[in-house]
Write a structure and sequence with these properties.
Chain A is an all-alpha fold. Helices cover 66% and strands 0% of the residues of chain A. Classes of the chains: A mainly alpha, B mainly alpha. Chains A and B meet through α6 and α7 of A and α8, α10 and α11 of B.
């Protein structure tokens, strides 16, 4: 009786020792093969991870609508995914009800089943917006190169929940996976400018964003073969506006004026920029 | 009636002696607990994500318990030849079948109560509210759905040759109805004839199990369903349970047992 027990104990110790020896080596091998920003879940899902990431992103939109969302069998699904209210937070913030996608019921079963499903178009508001963040986080874990996920999550963390520190951490995670993204640098600059009031750091980050924008968008043709604009002038406008705000905050009005003049040719509304230039010029004159 | 209850009591005893329920409950609890421990942006108010996963696990566990239990009832009795001493007693075959159904259904109902108590605890731990009426409706409707599934499985167990084939078919049919059953009419509208008419006919014939899944309403804190609708859904469920159970009794009446 003692010999089998001792043999079992010996085997147990042997197994434990082998695992303890092998595990760190296995981990090191896995980490060496997995690119930065891709966790265990991404490793498990392999090539399907982008599809799953898209699904999780859509899930965030489903949560934003409290489950009132077209199914894959509804024609409205594609439109809703394209519109993605969660990506256009300003529209969602109003909290007003929008027209539904359901239309008149097809039959009595369809009519009756609507009593057991969310059947009103609403948007999350207040601290409830936090409910969609797990899906966005999981989506970013699976597809760390989808910039939109970081932008949307950072927006809701800052504007919806007032969690600026968490937003910064998340954007920095995004920057680790996408170090040259002007969009992420711009969001980070905004956090330093608006939340931290750390103007020198905000300026450096905005300048880095501007440099990366030129690196990315300057080689692109002005219009594509389809006649669509290829350069993201809206982002450049926002970066330069950030720089203008920062220079105004530190009282460097001459530099702010230079950024406004740089902004004017590519601005969506050049007249508004010109108005700001005139106002700034008046301010400078008054100062001198 | 006493004979039916006697058979069902044996089924209930058999179910709680087996380990299926305990294992599934442990797994549901473990996965939900791991999800509960996950920290997203230091926000300890997040609960809908956990509720969705927990309700999904409850649905899957309840389906596994009900289908695997019901599918084995008659074949196991035949295999171990205990069906002969059972039928040698003054009991009709239909009473055995109804007793088996009642046993499986009540045992599944008890398992659901345990699962929903756990769900209520998880939900209240973060939500700090306990919408008892909504949870009762969800539990009640899910129980009705499982009644239909159990009746279908019992019918399959006397019609199909092996329990494994029966279980596979019932799982595919149930999950299929749950996820696409409600959209068949919409799908049919985009089809050409005669496929459109066939799909539309299937849409009207199948039991609409998706009516009994209130997960979306519970997860997103929607108001409760009007009680009259719950009553109508219950009557609709009873109609299908009776239909499948009658079919099972008829098939069992003419079934050779050796």
């Amino acid at each position: 009786m003692r010999t089998p027990l001792l043999t079992m104990l010996l085997l147990l110790v042997l197994c434990f020792g082998l695992v303890a020896w092998m595990d760190p080596r296995h981990q090191a091998r896995v980490e060496a093969n997995v690119p930065a920003g891709q966790g265990t879940l991404a490793g498990l899902l392999g090539e399907t991870r982008q599809t799953v990431a898209d699904y999780f992103y859509t899930q965030a939109d489903v949560y934003f609508h409290s489950g009132y969302y077209p199914s894959i069998f509804d024609e409205a699904r594609k439109q809703e995914e394209q519109d993605s209210d969660v990506s256009h937070p300003e529209e969602g913030k109003s909290g007003k009800e929008e027209k539904g996608f359901m239309g008149p019921p097809l039959d009595w079963i369809d009519r009756f089943s609507r009593h057991f499903l969310p059947s009103r178009h609403t948007h999350l508001s207040g601290s409830a917006v936090g409910e969609m963040l797990p899906w966005l986080k999981l989506s970013a874990d699976l597809d760390p190169h989808r910039i939109q996920t970081y932008i949307v999550t950072a927006y809701w963390l800052r504007q919806g929940l007032g969690k600026s520190a968490e937003a910064e951490d998340f954007v920095r995670d995004g920057l680790r996976a996408n170090p040259h993204s002007p969009d992420l640098l711009f969001i980070l600059g905004q956090i330093y400018l608006e939340d931290r009031k750390d103007y020198p750091r905000a300026k450096n980050i905005f300048l880095a964003a501007k440099k990366e924008w030129h690196k990315r968008d300057d080689p692109k043709p002005a219009v594509s073969k389809n006649g669509e604009e290829t350069k993201d002038y809206l982002l450049l406008e926002r970066i330069l506006s950030g720089l203008v705000k920062e220079e105004e905050a530190v009282g460097n009005l001459q530099q702010a004026l230079r950024y406004l003049e740089e902004l004017k040719p590519d601005a969506g509304d050049p007249a508004a920029v010109q108005k700001r230039i005139d106002e700034l010029k008046q301010k400078i004159q008054k100062k001198t | 009636m006493n004979k039916i209850f006697a058979v069902s009591a044996v089924v209930i005893k058999e179910i709680y002696r087996r380990k299926d329920f305990y294992v599934l409950f442990f797994l549901t609890g473990l996965i939900t607990f791991v999800m509960w421990l996950m920290n997203f942006f230091h926000d300890d108010q997040i609960i809908r994500f956990i509720k969705e996963i927990c309700l999904f696990l409850i649905l899957i566990s309840a389906l596994i318990i009900s289908v695997t239990t019901a599918a084995r009832q008659i074949p196991a009795e035949r295999e171990s030849r205990t069906i002969f001493p059972l039928l040698a007693k003054p009991i009709a075959r239909w009473q055995v079948m109804v007793g088996k159904f009642a046993g499986c259904w009540f045992a599944t109902g008890f398992a659901l109560v345990v699962f929903y108590l756990f769900f209520g605890l998880v939900s209240a731990s973060r939500d700090h509210t306990l919408p008892v009426a909504a949870y009762f409706q969800a539990l009640w409707l899910l129980w009705q759905m499982l009644g239909i599934v159990i009746a279908m499985t019992l019918l399959g167990s006397v019609v199909l040759s092996a329990p494994s084939a029966n279980m596979t078919i019932i799982f595919i049919v149930t999950i299929g109805i749950l996820y696409i059953g409600g959209f068949l009419h919409k799908v049919a509208m985009g089809m050409s004839e005669p496929s459109a008419s066939i799909v539309t006919a299937i849409y009207y014939i199948i039991p609409h199990l998706e009516l009994y899944n209130m997960s979306e309403l519970i997860v997103h804190d929607w108001p409760i369903v009007p009680w009259l609708d719950v009553l109508i859904a219950t009557i609709y469920g009873f109609a299908y349970m009776t239909f499948f159970l009658t079919g099972a009794c008829l098939a069992f009446r003419h079934k050779p047992l050796n």
